[in-house]
Fold this protein.
Amino acid sequence: MDKVILFLLKRKVILYLCTFLIVLMGIGALFSFHVELVPKTNLPWIEVNISGGALPPEEMVEKVTKKIEQELKSVAGIKNFSSKTGTGFSGISILAEDGEGEKVKQETQNIVNRLRNEFPKVVDTVTVTQTNLGDEDLIDYAIVGADTQTMLTLLKTTIKDRIESVPGVKEVVVSEDGFENKVAITFRPERLTTYRTTPADIVGQLQGTNWKKAVGILENPGFDTVVMIDNSLKNVEEFKSILIKTPKGKVALEQLASVSDLRGSVKDAISMTEGNLFVQMSVKRAAGSDLITTQKKVEEVVRQINEEAGGSYELRVMFESVSFIKKAITNLSRDVVIGGILAILVLWVFLRNWRVTMVIATTLPLSILMTFIALKAAGYNIDMVVLISLSLSIGLIVDAAIVVLESIYHLREKGMQLRQAIVQGSKEVIAPVFASQLTLIVVFLPLVVADFEQWLKPILHTIAFTVTSTILASTIAAFLFVPIFSERFLQHDKQLQSPSEEGKNRIVSLFQRLLLLTLRHRVLTLLVALGVFVGALSLFPLIKIGNGLNANENQIFATLTMPDGTSLEQARTAAVEAEKALRELSDVNQVFFTAKKETVELNITLVTKSQRTQEKEEFMQEVNGRLNAIDGVEQTSMTFGFSGKSAPIELQVAGEDLEVSRAISAKVEEMLASIPGVVNIRNDFERGKEKVTLTPNQEAMSQLQVDSDSLDSQISMLLGEQPLSTISQNGIETSIVARFPETWVTHPDQLQQIMIRTETGTQVPLHELVDFHFSKSPITIKHEKGEQIITVSAELLGTDIGTAGRQINEKLGTVEMPAGYKIEIAGDLKEQNNTFTQGILVLIAVISLIYVIMVAQFGRLSQPFIIMLSLPMALVGVILGFVVTQRTFGEMAMIGLIMLVGIVVSNAILLIDRINLLRSRGMGLDEAIVQGTRDRVRPVIMTKLTAILGMLPMGLAVAEGAELEAPLATGVIAGLIFHTLVTLVLVPVLYSIFEGIREKRVARKKATRIADM
């Protein structure tokens, strides 16, 4: 290494050129990054969605869901799968093993394609998709102010076209499920009787009236002419005048049926805000497009559309994440800059020498720029996780540079020539610095290979790559750039004694007196340390445990469940009351709701964090109380964040008989209700609908001359809608359907009396042709790994998932269950157990790897063991930090704790290496311990203060994005503060005990050998 440094000292222009290239490439990389919220990664979550017709859930399960599930059991690479089946639909969610997502998706697609011909004919939609982390959602708008038909037409035509033309926009999706898009021809039964015609006769004639086709080509020299007959209908009024042939002659359709234009009318859901109906529109961005730039362009187009509308309608932002992301990214970027400035100020305060400070200060931007180059080369973008990683690394970047420069400057203070001091000082610390930097890097090896939840792995990989790149960059800067910059900045430095020497001596003297005291009372010191550790462990139950990385704190999604039989209008009334109650809260910005029969979905947007008057927990309790106070509300559920997140408490009751499972789930609900802080308890069992099964009487049908196909078509016509054709206006296709009045047949007794036409033209009542069987049909059927389940869910208020989870585990065994049934923990609670199990395993693996590195560094087993014994003191700091701040200890805090292990051992490595170096030069044990500690006081405090202050802005958690970053910073800062003090006291004491025992053993062996001679 000394030859490399000497070469570079003689060829400084090489380093200056490298510096220029790093600055150029780093700035270029910085300005080419796209901005995201989280790393975009293709995850091994596959969704299969199958729909069509109105088949009851039991039939969909038998004919679709079970067939696919049976095939999935034999597919390698599947970790878990679950399904939800209802009337006319089946949804299957598959979780593949890590790295097997694409393969499992392809095999699932093959299975679905192979089984497609066996599905019922009414199944018309089958999709297989793979989920992404960092999805395509950009911004959602609500159009208000006009009638719904006009708003739907505008959204699906001009507005959609204009927004989709914006660069970076993939598509615009209009939510029209709650609105009709059809023209209904409703038969008048009494008129059909009068004119002695049937629905089948009318439908057959109508299907032959609306058509357009090419009938030939006129061939001419040089050109051809296509001949087309256009018999299509252009508007609704034309249908009314269509002539229908009946036994009594031709008659206009409007004499036999009413023709209603239902386009835009409310079907089964009402969406409103501030008393106005709205239609939702979602803008999706294209892959690779920049989030912020694309939304800015979309917002400009929407502003123009609103201006052109002149108040006749308005597009309002319903949901967007860019404003939150911009603030969060800005805040984190600010934290990185402030952290860097604080780190440099610490150096200047300690060194009081601007030349020395400048040497280290130059390595900070260089290391960050090298990190940018690495991130760009690896295909990363700027997101919250990358910035948190950089903020975490700011204080660590200068560690190696401080140690190298302090070693150089220490020799300069002793009068050594500058170039000789540079070479000798760098050589003395190269081994311990490399070892300490390696301990920071190896912590990520177990972290990235551990079996954490799939959604967490991309985040861990990003943190690992970013921090590793930063540490490697800082190590390169410390050993290549610091020596060269030292000669540049220090060659004219005459201030070889620090003006803060008095302050430095005061700090050193304080630690020296404390060290001498503890060395005189080593056993007492160890007992005190043990007592502190045990005391801290007793505080562990006071830590709030949680999980989830839902960074967006500006959005709440709530669902209100109403009693069975609640009408759409009753649900709308409750929703209006809920909106009014929520808008009274100063922290609420906007409220949008969608009311359906028996449920209300609320989308609540909050003001920015700096404008809020209530803490998160207090606010959630207020919202929960107001929603539960609304008349008719049976259950309430809430999620804080982006949406789609499951409840924190989920327990699954598995078994074949739904009624037995329902009874068990009721007992589970009673158990959860006895746990403080567990609220909004509910299960997803839905009482079935009444079902009438018609079994054809083959003998009667043969005698009365009615075949099965005719029976099926006539009943379908009488009870459902018969598609006729479509009309197109403004490029929008509208269905034309025929039907009987909705009130014509509403009861099974009426169904028995409907008349069926025989082959001879006579009519007979339905009850003479079929047998009626009455039963119940479940609304939805849910499976987990092929087993039928009911899920019991709940939210938490005033407690944390760790506390609630411990009580659930204690009480779960008290719930009685019959044979063949079981209760399993699911959702966040299961994730938390897995996360902490994996976290402990990773921590053990990290400690083992670090121990191996230190054994290689020191060449013995005992001295690394000394450092390992000091690690519990870092845990003391972490526990105290979370108890005092009452922040949630979750995944990010676990990552911080694992990283902390690598950070804290670096100082101990440098300290023990210094003591060993002094002993190798002939100094006695006690003298080497005191002198070595004295020599390392300044660099230890400087490096750890820079690390602490570098993360301090992140730990203060005062703005958007804080809930993601604060737990990580809290654990690292608190652990560093406590362990730094311990390093300079406890480690020397342990070293004294272990090495003292070793010296005595060596002395006894030597005395024995002399005696034997």
